[in-house]
């Protein structure tokens, strides 16, 4: 009598591992309710649609069925950037008010709160290493806001020229004099 039959008769419980022939090289079969997955039961994650709105939403199929990844957000136009800096002067670091101002002024460029916030911090991250205002006695947030407002002025005056090399001293002079 096999050990499995004895366990079944005495306890009434099915064993987790059913015995196959105990030949050399044969792996015992697993019970269907065990946690290990069988190759046939695996789910192809690429074939199933994503339920998360953030994932997979940025992919579109063209006529040939090729999946092309598109941008999740529209790039910032010069008009939107100009309105961002105008709103920054007016509202300060109030991202919600800046976002509403941009939407109100531009009917085509719809920017949400996260886009405005990301644009602010990404711009600050680009500018902050280049400018040293440690000798000015003001709170950090005030310096940050003042530099970003002046950066908006810089972009309008120089036709969106990036700050590098000798231009850093010119920009620093603009920030110091206002």
Automatic annotation (TrEMBL):
Organism: Soboliphyme baturini
Region (Disordered): 1-70
Superkingdom of source: Eukaryota
GO molecular function, one term: chromatin binding
Cellular localisation: Nucleus
UniProt record, GO biological process: pattern specification process
Keywords: DNA-binding, Nucleus
The keyword Protein biosynthesis belongs to this UniProt entry's keyword annotation: no
CDD domains: SANT (cd00167)
Entry protein name: SANT domain-containing protein
Domain Myb-like: 72-126
Primary location group: nucleus
Positions with biased composition (Basic and acidic residues): 55-66
Keyword Lyase in annotation: no
């Amino acid at each position: 009598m096999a050990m499995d039959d004895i366990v079944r008769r005495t306890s009434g419980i099915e064993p987790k591992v059913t015995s196959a022939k105990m030949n050399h090289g044969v792996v015992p079969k697993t019970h269907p309710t065990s946690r290990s997955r069988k190759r046939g039961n695996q789910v192809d994650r690429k074939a199933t649609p994503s339920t998360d709105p953030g994932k997979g939403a940025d992919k579109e199929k063209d006529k040939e069925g090729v999946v092309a990844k598109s941008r999740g957000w529209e790039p910032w136009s010069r008009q939107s950037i100009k309105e961002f800096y105008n709103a920054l002067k007016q509202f300060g670091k109030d991202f919600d008010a800046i976002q509403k101002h941009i939407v109100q002024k531009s009917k085509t460029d719809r920017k949400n709160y996260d886009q405005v916030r990301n644009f602010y911090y990404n711009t600050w991250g680009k500018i902050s290493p280049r400018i040293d205002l440690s000798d000015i006695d003001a709170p950090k947030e005030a310096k940050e806001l003042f530099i970003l407002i002046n950066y908006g002025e810089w972009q309008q005056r120089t036709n969106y020229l990036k700050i590098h090399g000798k231009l850093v001293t010119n920009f620093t002079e603009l920030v110091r004099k206002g």
